[in-house]
């Protein structure tokens, strides 16, 4: 499994280019974070990468084939998208919602079979959401909904998971649950690509990062190289300190914003 | 331990008990409705006559047979079909637009069909002509809605807005037809037709009107699990791997066809398409595996009951739309308050 963006550029109709010459490559077992200030086009980038929006220039390539040439059904069996939880809360039960993830495997006039249900129940157990299976998706907490949406992506059986801000709007504990789950999924050989607002989450969990800047340019590479105090100042206009914290439970890297960069400084 | 947690039944499907209830309820309601009327025929005789017809013999007196087979049977068949069709198209539109207020008329079908029928009556067409004209105008209204509201990058909400505009345009045209119609003869006919009635039903009318409804029901019933993708947001639907544009187009086409056909045969019968799917959602949840059969069955039952009341409680037949609202609204409010409503 390998997905890459080759010189992807995108701009809305008549507008300036929002994303310029984006390059990204993700292989098996890798976890890749996409970072950037608000409004820079992180969600747009994911949507272009998945063919939900057309690139103006450049292309996305999945296992050596340009995705325009891959039948939709086959593509979505290999790649799953988890949208922002706030846009996804149809009032199905958690179990029904996960079953919808099997749609690309089920013929138009057919209903899910026992085998599909077994897959769903296995995934629910793996994500520890079995207890929620009868609850409505619009009546559970944000963290629970996020896990249900990840579950829906997993039951499709795709090797590549693309997630839009999976840990936004969650508390500390749920952020960790989601990120640790994604890490485990990557260690099992899947490719995880996720948007995030938090440079610290990228540093702590991702292998590689794509940093988008307001002028549309970007930087892609190993996470320690892409996320530094300098690049954060360039991208977010914020002075920050990156430090390593020791504790009995492990060593973590953290990014602490210190001060706004004054316009005159640059 | 995990095995005890696992359920055998597919989530969102009807239990055997509910399936039996829905089937028995539909058949029993139809049977009872066939026997009720100013000229009563015992239920046993009705059943006997139907079974007799299957074997090619008539067990009733010729007068009873005339009432049962020429007057009541087409009317009950129409009530079953129209109730099922309107209820299912309401369900389809609500899911399609992820909007609990959507009705079979959301895209302007019913208004268009009403205009077609009113115009047909104004021009003095025969009954079949009125019916075909109504279907044609209903389809035209939806086409106009599409021209006005769809397009690359526009969401489904634009389509709903366009539907409201086109709907009110055709409503205005209906008013205009009424305004120019002859107040002695044509106006009462148009007004009466607009309030809805099943008394014009005959086998000939059913011959043209039933197939589109049956096709719509069969297609949507086959697609019932797929319909669950409709209320999802655009990106979710697209990334489910389902051909979402095709699914939406088929759904709109089927629902439109059913609605136009219903309106063409029995005028504007309001409420069924809103009331019945809502009741089903309160009871069965949002999974179309159960919603489709439940809406079809309960829609049919509801309209047969209301039509039977319409033709029996007073000497003069009451327009059916009046009754669907009078019975539907309080019943709906009661249910909503007891169940706490539902969300799409």
Notes on the protein architecture:
The complex is a heterodimer of chains A (266) and B (344). Chain A is 32% helix and 28% strand. Chain A has 266 residues and is α/β, with parallel strands linked by helices. Chain A has a single domain (2-265), classed as Rossmann fold (3-Layer(aba) Sandwich). In chain A, helix 3 (94-100) runs parallel beside helix 5 and helix 4 (114-126) crosses helix 5 (142-155). The longest helix of chain A has 16 residues, at 172-187. In chain B, helix 2 crosses helix 3, helix 4 packs antiparallel against helix 11 and helix 5 (109-122) runs antiparallel to helix 6 (127-149). Chain A binds chain B through residues 47, 50, 52, 72-73, 75-77, 80-81, 83, 87-88, 90-93, 95-96, 99-101, 103-106, 108-112, 117-118, 121, 125, 130, 133, 136, 138, 156, and chain B through 2, 5-6, 10-13, 98, 222-226, 228-229, 231-233, 235-236, 238-243, 285-287, 289, 342-344.
Query: How large, in whole angstroms, is the Cα Rg of chain A?
Result: 19 Å
Named CATH topology of chain A? Rossmann fold
Strand and helix order of chain A: EEEHEEHEHHHEHEHEEHHEE
Query: How would you sum up the global shape of chain B?
Result: globular
Q: Residue ranges of chain A: pLDDT <50 for 5 or more in a row?
A: none
CATH superfamily of chain B: ABC transporter involved in vitamin B12 uptake, BtuC
Mean pLDDT reading of chain A:
92
CATH class bucket of chain B: Mainly Alpha
